[in-house]
Write a structure and sequence with these properties.
The chain is of the alpha/beta class and 399 residues long. 32% of the residues lie in helices and 15% in strands. It has 16 helices and 13 strands. The protein has an 8-stranded mixed sheet, with helices on both faces. Strands 9-13-12-10-11 form a 5-stranded parallel sheet. The longest helix has 18 residues. The radius of gyration is 24 Å and the shape is globular. The structure holds zinc ion (ZN). Zinc ion (ZN) binds next to helix 8.
Length: 399
């Protein structure tokens, strides 16, 4: 993709311009055009640029807005989620009246209102091993705005196999990270993070929270790196990771090294195609003897019926105390997941136990833990208190 005449320029380097700017575009982008390092040719490169955003959420919001405003010609968006009221604290692509719509519809409207010249390609699907290479093939830069490990490894591997840069960002509570993985010139995600963390050990933003401005800062850094890649300008974050701590307002830069033994971009790669990333991240590996979660799930309605019927169920809430103070199920005992193992002995395996948390993930991990400890009469409240609030008790606050 690189040419001698314009080192670093992506995809468009050296080619004669096929998309000259209109007079309206010259006015719209005038503040770019008068920067000598950008100029008309730079703006044409942005117009010819194709950027794929994985996720139209917290990071995807500032990314989509700034890239569209800057005149990136084609934005691809991959997402399968619906706008929820709890998204609006940070996902500035979406507004109050978009709650309940798909994030892609909402994102398309917002982008088009800002800049109708941008071509928006939407992919309403989960990114999978079956579709990733096809979806990404046509794009110059891939931007990872996801919050789960299987998709991060999948995005990385697909980018390495296709020879594309992966602009990476991640956020949690008050801290964020940003870098550019490009295996042709530096390390890939696997060089730096060879092993996924044990399932459940790193909480997502839905479980652990995130300050609303943080994705704005990290997503905007990602947008800037993307623009630099398209323009072939400056030094990108290839081989360097920026770490941002909002509480101390400090940016740190860490050097990243390419691992010669990396299984996908090293000297002797063992991964030559996409794999099963859920399995790789340990999400399909229940403890021995644990024969599937389906019959251990109890749906909110079913639990309500059993409680109304007077069944003797021990309700255990594995959320943290600050969440318990937001809402709780009557009669549920608080035993936070973070210290659960120390208190298991307080439970009786002869009881019928129903575990619950915010959305059914931590409680499912707790269930596996109890299963390993020999408990067999345990159930997980499917979808957690969030599902309970939606399906059984609309007066319960959701968060
Ligand atoms: Zn690597």
């Amino acid at each position: 993709m690189y040419t001698d005449s314009e080192p670093g320029a992506l995809g468009v380097g050296g080619r004669r311009c096929e998309m000259p700017l209109t007079n309206e575009e010259i006015l719209r982008y005038s503040r770019h055009l008068i920067i000598p390092e950008v100029g008309v040719r730079g703006q044409e490169k942005l117009k010819e640029g194709k950027v794929l955003l994985i996720g139209a959420g917290g990071l995807g919001s500032p990314l989509a807005l700034y890239l569209a405003a800057a005149g990136v010609g084609t934005l691809g968006l991959v997402d399968f989620d619906v706008v929820d009221l709890s998204n609006l604290q940070r996902q500035i692509l979406h507004g109050f009246w978009d709650v309940g719509r798909t994030k892609l519809e909402s994102a398309r409207d917002t982008i088009t209102a800002l800049n109708p010249d941008v071509t928006v390609q939407t992919y309403e699907t989960r990114l999978t091993s079956a579709n990733a290479l096809t979806i990404m093939a046509d794009y110059d830069v891939i931007v990872d705005g996801t919050d789960n490990f299987p998709t991060r490894y999948l995005t990385n591997d697909a980018c390495v196999l296709l020879g594309k840069p992966n602009v990476y960002g991640s956020i949690f509570r008050f801290e964020g990270q940003c870098t550019v993985f490009d295996a042709r010139r530096g390390p890939c995600y696997r060089c730096v993070f060879p092993h996924p963390p044990p399932p459940g050990s790193v909480p997502s933003c839905a479980e652990g929270g995130v300050l609303g401005v943080l994705p704005g800062i990290i997503g905007t850094l990602q947008a800037m790196e993307t623009i630099k890649l398209l323009l072939g300008l400056g030094e990108t974050l290839v081989g360097r990771l920026v770490f941002y701590d909002a509480l101390s307002t400090e940016f740190q830069r860490l050097e990243l090294r390419k691992d010669p033994a990396c299984p996908i971009c090293g000297e002797h790669p063992t991964i030559t195609g996409l794999i099963d990333y859920e399995e790789f991240c340990g999400l399909h590996t229940p403890p021995p003897g644990f024969d599937g979660i389906e019959h251990c799930q109890i749906r909110p309605r079913e639990l309500k019926n059993r409680l109304d019927h007077g069944d003797r169920l021990v309700l255990i809430d594995v959320r943290e105390p600050h969440e318990y103070s937001i809402c709780r199920l009557e009669g549920a005992r608080l035993m936070p997941f973070s210290t659960f193992a120390e208190h298991v002995h307080q439970l009786n395996s002869a009881d019928e136990i129903v575990l619950l948390c915010k959305n059914g993930l931590r409680s499912l991990q707790t269930l596996q833990l109890l299963w390993e400890a020999g408990f067999r009469k345990v159930f997980n409240l499917a979808g957690g208190l969030d599902a309970w609030a939606k399906q059984v008790d609309p007066t319960m606050p959701r968060y």
